[in-house]
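Explain this record to help learners:
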Amino acid sequence: MAESLSVDPNLSFAAADVFCYSIIMDQEILSLLQNAQHLGIELNEQQLTQCDVYQKELLLWNAKTNLISEKSSKEIVSRHFLDSLTALQFIDKPQARIVDIGCGAGFPGLPLKIAAPELALYLLESNRKKMSFLKYIVRILNLSQTFFLHDRVENLMQENKWQGFFDIVVTRAAFKLPELLPYAAFFLAEGGKFIALKGWDIEEELSQGAELAGRYVFSELFQYDIDNKFLGNPRKIIIGEKIK
């Protein structure tokens, strides 16, 4: 069952009397603002504040719980926020129902939700500690229309209500394409798409996925090169659209 948290519609996230965070434009947040613009994304003050809070809380939690690697914790803006936002250009339905499978500490789902608040986001994660963090950060960021699926993918696929329920399946390095295809085929509505954020060297994986695509009602797979200097190493995004 999907769980959601209540959101106070009267709560202004950036209100100084509620939150002790301030949006002093430090270098990292400034780079987020500027580089998001290079991706065609305009982040307002509230969204930047939310990212700032997210980053600070993630570092605090990560000191006690292994949410992200020590190396990537030093590059949260580029390795996590901006990398996640590269998927936004492929979401063409403003109020899409999207599930982030194996979202870990919330990537790519939460940065996408912050940048596009009208998305209905479902965070699917089986790890208890990571789910605790997700519930906490969603609450303090006051994100509406954000739901939690604390379970394994295989278990949810036993429940008919989730079949064909989503417009978008998104995942970042959680599954190889041959493993992702049957999951995406189950969760997606006809005409829906999966968005898989990948590293650069996936030639063999992509070949294996392409061979299986037809079996899981995807006509073909599309690859897009993502090569922005501010992201570090180049990467790819793989898109599969479910046949109508």
